[in-house]
Amino acid sequence: MVIGLTACILAQAAVATAPAATPSTVAPVAQPEHHADDRLLQAEILITKNAFDEARKILTELAQKPYGERARDNQVQFLLGMLDIHDQDYDSAISRFRRILVSEPGAVRVRLEMGRAYYLSGRYSEAERQFMYARAGKIPKAVRANIDRYLGAVRQRKTFSYGFAIALAPDTNLNAGPATNAVTLYGLPFQLSPGAKANSGVGVMLDTNMEWAPQVGKRAKWRIGAQLHRSQYRQTDFDDMTTSIYTGPRLTLKRWDLNLLGNFARRWYGDRGYTKAYGPSADATYYVSPRFGVGVGGAVNRVDYDQNLSQNGLGKTVSLSTFYTPTTSSYVRGAITAGWQGARDPAYAFDSWQFGLAYIREFPGGITASIAPAFTKLDYDSPLTAFETATFSGIRRDKQYAVQLSLLERRFDFHGLTPRIAYTFIKNDSNISLYTFKRSRFELGLTASF
């Protein structure tokens, strides 16, 4: 009964500019048992007769007095969400579907309708994520085809996005100071100043980004974006801020996304100018399937330092990346990046390799957990004269290991902001003790992306 019932709402909720409504051959949630005098059954029958107002009245009363049985309570929320879509109250529908997914993150049909509500409200980034999760479920071929149409439409229509995160950040080594109190330079021991040693503290971290990409052709957009990161501490000497802007064309084909951008970034450290970086970048993503994609990218950047001009030089990077949605509640992405940074003084020039992986999983109870390990290797070109000895060349070699663990609480949603807790650990091993350090940082805050 329920599977067919929702089709009535879907047919009326579809809009002319959207793909066809999601077929109703996927069960919405775990099916509740019905009784002869069941008011939930009455509401479902009213929906089949297009008596939506009467059905909503019954369902609203049932929602105010939950059964305490998950399947029945979720079915009430699902039908109310479908009525909300019919009435174009997409925020309410999204809230109801989110409530169901807290307890049933694998509910494919709810993913589909939540994605459709996001799509109809113009929130295409969230719609894309929900459709990709749903695409990983066991669904009929016709449903897969319709999801693919939605995903294709999302890629074409997504013109505006932004993200925001703010957090308190206790940090054991906010300046990445060495794990030593002294260093040998030119064969002589020197004590490190307090500012050069590892310093701990509590800061506030702010990250925000925004992009507008208006259509300039049938398959072309022009991207204009900006990003801001700031870490603010009581000790102003360790404040760190980076702003960046970019612009350029994007071409969206059936299986390809192609980007060509011009980039500019400015960094301040200790509230003083630190670096400027500018140059072009290009990347291409190929969608092997809607759930699986691979990408390649490259960038050339001129980096100029405000203080140490010997570090000025041209940098180049190439990268390979991939993403995959293995289940209806998990997502994996990874990247490999090779870099070459030049400098006036070859002692500051280096080659680099970086490997990164991220796994995100939604769990019952409203928790989304992620783990993101990374490894970076730096090999410098020439000796640092101050560290040369009879037995050591003075050429710096670093290996950095990092991992971030984070938890999102999906049950709480305040104007799109979700509570987040994260822990990041970094261990940098260097053959020069001045650059060896460990760092632990916690983040307790709110995050959102649209």
Describe the structure.
The protein is 24% helix and 44% strand. The chain has 8 helices and 16 strands. It has helices at residues 2-13, 39-48, 52-64, 70-86, 90-103, 108-120, 124-135, 141-157, and strands at 160-171, 182-185, 188-191, 201-212, 220-233, 240-252, 256-269, 272-289, 292-305, 313-327, 330-341, 350-363, 367-380, 397-409, 418-430, 437-449. The strands form 2 sheets. The protein has a 14-stranded antiparallel β-barrel. Strands 2-3 form a two-stranded antiparallel sheet. It folds into 2 domains: 2-157, Tetratricopeptide repeat domain (Serine Threonine Protein Phosphatase 5, Tetratricopeptide repeat), CATH 1.25.40; 160-449, Porin. It has 450 residues and is α+β, with helices and mostly antiparallel strands. The relative contact order is 0.10.
Summarize it.
It is built from 8 helices and 16 strands.
Order of helices and strands: HHHHHHHHEEEEEEEEEEEEEEEE
Major beta sheet, specifics?
14 strands, antiparallel, barrel
Q: What CATH first level of the largest domain would be assigned?
A: Mainly Beta
Strand elements, count: 16
Task: Kindly provide the radius of gyration, computed on alpha-carbon positions and rounded to a whole number of angstroms.
Answer: 26 Å
- Low-confidence parts, pLDDT < 50 over ≥5 residues? 1-17, 20-26
Strand fraction equals 35-45%
- Continuous helix count: 8
Give the second-level CATH assignment, the architecture of the largest domain.
Beta Barrel
Total domain modules: 2
> What would you give as the CATH superfamily of the largest domain?
monomeric porin ompg
In CATH, the topology of the largest domain is named: Porin
Multimer state: single chain
3D shape: elongated
Mean pLDDT: 87
